[in-house]
Amino acid sequence: MKAQSLVHALRDTAYLDGIDVGAYLDLVREQHPQLYAELDFGRDGAQQALASLAQVFNEFETDDRDNGRGDSYRRAQQNIAVRMTGIRRLFELAGGVQDVRDLPPTWRILDLLAGDGLLTRALRVLAPQVRDGVISSDIARTMVTAALAAGLPAIRQDARFLFIRSTTMDAVILAYGSHHVPSDDRTTVFQEAARVLRPGGRFVVHDFEEGSPSARWFSEAVHRHSAAGHPYRHFTAEELRRGLGAAGLRGIRVHRVYDPFIMRAATREDAAGQLADYMHDMYGLCGLDRGDATRETVRARVWHLCEECFCFGPHDGGADHTDTWPRHPAVYRVGGQWVAEIPRIALVGVGEK
Ligand SMILES: C[S@@+](CC[C@H](N)C(=O)[O-])C[C@H]1O[C@@H](n2cnc3c(N)ncnc32)[C@H](O)[C@@H]1O
């Protein structure tokens, strides 16, 4: 079937809640014409990919089911400042620039695990010249619906099969959840990312190193205390290098990037307490609410877990700014403000097409 007629045939296929493919295409044509020009629902395999999407309901949809944390996750992400340090560095690596403010205004980047568009909202603050350059892409209906409702260019698709034309993107980011892609499917995702990159474009893969304190948080805290658990394998540096190479990318580098959680507030108690709330909501740590725990008790439990997991040795990481970051969660004063900081080091691979 020709691509055009395939798209026509797919128009009635369910896509987002109450929105079929045709309604989605009409909305994007009207509100995000550049994204519309980059879409390709006529690719071979699109029909099957849409049928598979219809079966997906993951832990990031809602809090309503026994295994969900979607609503609380989105609530936490309303604060775009907490993870800004690491996000800024990812954009710089993706753009090949020293400073995010040097990114060109026409920059196009696809965020493959976008949630409800945190990275898009962050880039609007970090580099306002790149207006709506980030396309938010996610497999979860509610995440994509929330991004579209906020006026962001967004698409629902599995990172393993993209409804995006080849050689259209300056950069692709797979971040803050790459471990959710099963090990056997990671090469497919890397190859899809490479396909949509234009020559010279960069693919950035962010995750956490197997066996590191950053990965320990997921096995010791999230797996034990969230409703869905967290039975996912993280990455090794070698796996990142191999995957990027298998996708045909070159100039491959693996970085250790400082990627902390930081909360600022007027008092010590507020800074630490609000950061504990953020961690509780983002990771759905409902197991810590057991008994008739007060808000203060839950906050203390979250903070204690963070202290147990995010504990780095003097030589850990080789990350950016190695000399300045705290080796364990800390609350300190800067000027008139209190800062709560939970250190974390991400493993980040970059390859160029
Ligand atoms: C931890 S969230 C990250 C969201 C956002 N980037 C952030 O930093 O807050 C991971 C996201 O990846 C999405 N996801 C998981 N597997 C996916 C896949 N195979 N394709 C596309 N999205 C996927 C989930 O639905 C979820 O929204």
UniProtKB/TrEMBL annotation:
Transferase found in the keyword field: yes
Methyltransferase is among the record's keywords: yes
One Pfam family cited in the UniProt record for this chain: Methyltransf_11
Gene Ontology MF: a single term: methyltransferase activity
Any Gene Ontology biological process: methylation
Keywords: Methyltransferase, Transferase, Ubiquinone
Protein's UniProt name: Ubiquinone/menaquinone biosynthesis methyltransferase
